[in-house]
Amino acid sequence: MVRWGARTMRYLRLFGLFFRVGMLNELEYRANFFIQVFQTVLGLLVSLGGLSIIFSHADNLGGWKPDELLAVVGIYFLVGGLINLVIQPSMQKLMEDVRQGTLDFLLTKPEDAQVLVSVRQVQIWKLVDIVLGLVVLIVAGVRMGTVITPWTAVSFVLMLLAGAIIIYSFWLMLATFTFWFVKIDNILVIFQSMYEAGRWPVSIYPAWLRVILTFIVPVAFAVTIPAEAAVGRLTPAMLLGGLALAAAMLIFSRWFWRFGIKHYSGASA
Amino acid sequence: MLALIAYYQQRIKTSFIVQSQYRVALAIWMIGLVLEPVIYLVVWRTVAESSGGQVGGFTPGGFAAYYIVLMVVMHLTQIWHMWEMEYLIRDGTMSGRLLRPIHPIHQDVSENIAYKVLMLIVVVPATLFLVVVFQPEIQTSLWAVLLFLPAILLAAMLAFLVGWLVALAAFWTTRTLAINEFYFISMFFFAGQVAPLELLPDFIRRIADLLPFRWMLSFPVELFLGRLNPQAALEGFSAQVIWIGLAWLALRWVWTQGVRRYGAVGG
Fold first, then answer.
1. Coil/strand/helix, residue A109
2. Which residues of B touch A209 (CB under 8 A)?
3. Does A200 contact B at CB distance below 8 Å?
4. Distance in angstroms (rounded) separating the CA atoms of residues A43 and A73
């Protein structure tokens, strides 16, 4: 247990290091910050505009009240920001490295390769999305006016964590496929368009699309289920299911990654 | 003129062959094209079902018809050169194009036409799939359906001119991403993507009538679905023609200014 804790601390420090490097790189291009703010605000405008048009015609959407959907929007930005902050850029770098053979350099480093490939690219301006998502979420919470019970708070944080783990494992598995099929960055485009569907609770979609958004591209776990926890609608069974799936996917993606890396023959081989 | 026709024939043929090499990319683009209309179709259908079967004259089947037709028109009017122009200018490819004895816009028009025709291979099955899944209902008249084709052609021309005009911003700035996103969000609200324009508040509809976006996308859709009376249809066609004229004039002027400003990389 102590060893496990120490290792986690070391990985967190490693992430902190890459975060600082990302920050130093980007601080040279400060205008990008304003571009990011502009983009995030436009994205928020799309969400809020859509919501206000819909709720000028109805008082709920598939059982979700306006403020609850506002919480969905907040979580959509929060999780999207998290994915774009570190998961997606790191995985894209991994795919590029495999294609060019430069992954060799990384594999020689005396640290767990999976941890290194997972955190080494950080796009710090995406913090804007995270912050704004949090603000929207807090506004939604205040407007709902419900008392935050320990159950709501704990289940929300746990589901957010589980969602992040599921999305991470999903990306890692996708990226691992690069060891066999060298050029698959188009798949990332699919994920990005699919994530758009997460602006709305997946329960409104027809069954076939819901299955895709839950098990093939796990948008449901990333956004809708944490949102259900935040509005206090999560059942204990769903909580346990989410946690179990997160653990299973983490273990499986780790195994798959190790299996894949055995197939990596390097640039010069 | 004959030379131009010959150029187009050859260019379209070549683009067609080149683009059909990227079959996986085409399938992926299709997902992008289909997903957004499907999301808002589902959202609005849910709203209609929960508010007693209809919203502002749209039944669930009416929304299905609206968004399926919208998807087809989106495909036929799309333009992506605003994403490419920045690279063409930055890496100097534009220099080569400027040296040719023909305006660079013709190459882009050819590629655009070739892509739209080629993509029908996936757009047609996707449309049929959505029709089977979402059961659209259409009540329209013959004249409206017959006028759909000219309305699409004019919308596609207008969308191409406006899109190319947006792309030319790359001559002045490298931050084209922000400009492009501004353009696409305008389409989202004023061209009937977030909701049929009939469902928007009055003042937004009035703004939408004054901007070019509605005439680039939602006007043909409204026409096809029989939601416009003959007078509104006539006004729509007039608006399309006027905007095409304005956009064409603006394009000529901005292009001259832009080329004058253009200093190629390494030039």
1. coil
2. 38, 42
3. yes
4. 10
Å from B194 to nearest chain A CA? 6
Can you say whether the dihedral through the CA atoms of B232, B235, B237, B243 is positive or negative?
A: negative
Contacts of A35 in chain B (CB under 8 A): 175, 177-178
Q: Do A35 and B178 touch (CB under 8 A)?
A: yes
Q: Cα–Cα distance between B238 and A225 in angstroms, integer?
A: 49
Tokens of B141: 């008249």
Q: How do the domains of chain A map onto residue ranges? A: 2-262
Nearest-5° angle of CA B200, CA B197, CA B143?
150
**Residue A154 burial (CB count, 10 A):** 12
Cα separation, A223 vs A231, whole angstroms: 12
| Helical residues (DSSP H) of A27-149, grouped into ranges | 31-55, 66-82, 88-100, 103-107, 113-119, 127-144
CA atoms within 13 A on the CB side of B49: 13
Q: Which two tokens stand for residue B90?
A: 């930055």
Average pLDDT per consecutive 10 residues, chain B (267 residues; last block may be shorter): 87 87 77 89 92 87 96 94 85 85 90 91 93 93 94 97 93 85 92 94 93 96 94 96 97 92 62
Nearest in space to A54 (alpha carbons), one of B194, B133, B160: B194
Residue whose pair of structure tokens reads 């920050």 in the numeric block: A23
**Token pair 């197939």 in the structure block, residue:** A263
Helix (H) or strand (E) holding B165: helix B142-167
Within 10 angstroms of residue A203's Cβ, the number of other Cβ atoms is 14
Distance CA A202, CA A58 (A): 18
Half-sphere exposure for A117 (CA within 13 Å, toward CB):
29
Measured in angstroms, the CA of A259 and the nearest CA of chain B are apart by: 26
